Amino acid sequence: MDVLSRTIPNLPEKLSFKVEKRMKKMGIRVMLNTSVVRMGPDFVETKSNDELTKEGTYTVIWAAGIESAEVTNQAAQKLQAGGRGRIATDAYLRSLDDETVYVIGDNMLYTPEGEERPVPQVVENCEHSAATAAHNIICAVTGQGQMEKYQPAFHGFMVCIGGRYGVARVGLPNRMFNLPSWLAMFSKHFINIVYFVQVLGWNKVFSYMRHEFFTIRNKRSFVGGHFSNRTPSFLLVPIRVWLGAVWLFEGVMKIVEGWFTEPKLTAFFGGAQAWYNNIINSAGDGAAEQAGNAAAHIGTVIFNIDFLGLVQAVFVSGKALAQATMSDLAFKLDIPIMNWFIDKFILSSDTMQVVMQVFIVMAEILIGLALIGGLFTCPASAFSLVLQFMFVTTTGLYLTTFWMIFAAIAVLIGGGQTLGLDYYVMPVLKRSWKKVPWVKKSYLYND
Known about the structure:
Elements: H1 13-25, E1 35-40, E2 43-48, E3 51-56, H2 70-75, E4 87-88, E5 108-109, H3 123-142, E6 156-161, E7 165-172, E8 175-179, H4 181-199, H5 202-214, H6 237-256, H7 265-283, H8 288-298, E9 300-307, E10 311-317, E11 329-334, H9 336-346, H10 350-373, H11 377-394, E12 397-398, H12 403-410, H13 422-434, H14 437-442
Parallel strand pairs: 4-5
Antiparallel strand pairs: 1-2, 2-3, 6-7, 7-8, 9-10, 10-11, 11-12
Helix pairs in contact: 6-10, 7-8, 10-11, 11-12
């Protein structure tokens, strides 16, 4: 019910119509140009076009817009004010009647030059006016500096109708555009996350995302119920332990092969590159019959796509496709800048190769032990993904190895909280981290 002719006058008529349509779809009766004139214990009396209507009800929820704070209402009795107790201000956000009184946010009544309406009572106005008023108060108190006029530049408005639908008009002050429902809700959550980072820290961001996306029930999120169904953590324990065991095995086997004592990377990278080149070059040689014979003996190029010379995606089979198995299929991302780094630095000397080999072996062993024990599972899984990416861009990966990427993703968040040491270690670290002075001061990680 609203006394106005349409909902949300701050938005264009098109978006107002969408809001009204959505509410009607939700079973809400929208009554415009209608005001409440009287209420009783079991009825509400409304007025529309001079016609009174009395309807029975047992529950009344009154939402009559934004009202200024009580202190502002009291000040409005002595200072020039407008509707709902808003104090009229000049361009410096001072009361028109008393230059020692500064007013900001929802309590101010100020119409910028060239505008028809006062600044809206929204969060962005509160932020911007607070900064201007703070600067001007410092100038007034110290007698130094130049006062600034309040020149708001709003970036839009957003209205949510429940947890799954919203409308928004956003952009730059002179270039606004409308956002449909899904993008409007996405923008809302993105803006909330930005504010939480600034005020409450990353821990609040994680809890917000968990609450709004990953645990929400009854499909109340704008992504529906797709993210709300959770796999019990104990079901992830076998894949976490197996992933760790494979990494541990890989590291130990490299020690047995001599990765701690002699350079191996030249042959390691070179052999893989030669294998890919043989398959690719054979597929492009001579006549079709010659190419077919070569592919039958060497392999088959499934696709070889070059993205503007920045990345080359190569997917090949070591055999003809009709005879190939999963262990014959390999994928590689060929990145020129990565190749340059390897040639100029990693393979620059035998000593550098051995150092890099020791790093890889130790990383594989530590990742393996961490995942098996469920200790620091998140960084261990993240580093597992980093190593897999390194292999994809250097030697490539057989498809039979890709399961390790998906397993690391599966246990990335909270994988060690069940039957793992993270259950005991992470709470202790969290308490200790929150006591660090610069962390508390910078709001990097707070509850």
